[in-house]
Amino acid sequence: MSSKETVFFTGGAGFIGMHVVPMLLEKDYKVRIFDNMFRGDREAVAALGDDVELIDQDVRYGGAVHAAMKGCSKVIHAAAVSINKSQADPYESMDINMIGNHNVFAAAADHGVDRLVYCSSASVYGDPERLPMHEDDRLSPQTPYCISKRAGEDLLDFYHRRSGLSWVGLRFFNVYGPGQKTTAYYTSVINHFVNRIKNGEPPVIDGKGEQSMDFIHVHDIARSVVLALESEQDNKPVNIGTGIDTTIAELADILIEAVNADVTPIFNERDVIASRRAADITRAKEMLGFEPTIEVRKGMIDLIRAQ
Known about the structure:
- The protein has 307 residues and is an alpha/beta fold.
- The protein has 2 domains: 6-174 and 216-240, Rossmann fold; 175-214 and 243-305, UDP-galactose 4-epimerase, domain 1 (Alpha-Beta Complex), CATH 3.90.25.
- 41% of the residues lie in helices and 18% in strands.
- It contains 11 helices and 13 strands.
- The chain has helices at residues 17-26, 42-46, 62-69, 83-88, 90-111, 144-163, 187-198, 218-230, 248-259, 282-288, 296-305, and strands at residues 6-10, 30-35, 52-56, 74-77, 115-121, 167-172, 174-176, 204-206, 212-213, 215-217, 236-240, 246-247, 266-268.
- The strands form 4 sheets. It has a 7-stranded parallel beta sheet with strand order 3-2-1-4-5-6-11, with helices on both faces. Strands 7-10 form a two-stranded parallel sheet. It has a two-stranded parallel sheet with strand order 8-13.
- The longest helix has 22 residues, at 90-111.
- It is globular, with a radius of gyration of 19 Å.
- Pfam families: Epimerase.
- Residues 9-241 form the NAD-dependent epimerase/dehydratase domain.
- This is NAD-dependent epimerase/dehydratase family protein.
């Protein structure tokens, strides 16, 4: 009988999961991935070794979730429908993100797991009223995806009060890195720029390019998940970002440098609402001991040059 703890990981075969699982194995955990494999890579999962088990199932089925979680001491819940898809098909989004959330949280409470780490999102804030964005700021989620992420945090608080479930909700900012699908809603900007630059064409930027995002590398995201799994503090949402906002104009310059192209961005002069994002990561530092390690320029250049 193995003495290793088993981590139950919904959506563990996805982009973020495939960066987290190797870190869990390094810390001597076993991992039980629960994933419908809609976007997962079976060969990549199989290559992770004997301490990784794959259960090909869907979080919408509560009985399957409950049965599969038996014997697991920790849970990571990452399974979700993307933000773009949630707007195109709100019904599926509510089904997977809301019902799925509840199935996982209720099972974790029933099984008395030590810790549940929930992959939430900075999208719960909507358009921020100030920068950097703090966990106690007003939340204004705008899409079914964002609404479900906020509701997930509220559900976790309910199960903490009702059953003593220990949880940490990680509000991820704009994640990028190797292995990411090009369909992510903000990576389309990166892909559009890179495709034009590689073709010798200048990237086209709407307005003055003042819109910004807090880009955080998936390696740092994965580190935050493992830290949250073992943190002594719990039962709060935590921002996971760099604390630095990168404008679209700055992003274009970084990508031109990465491709080593001789082009200059074209600015499409029109009125653009310049939304900005940057995380206050004070709580992440204090509660998890987390600090980002990969600077945006280096991370972006490494990513593009590796393609």
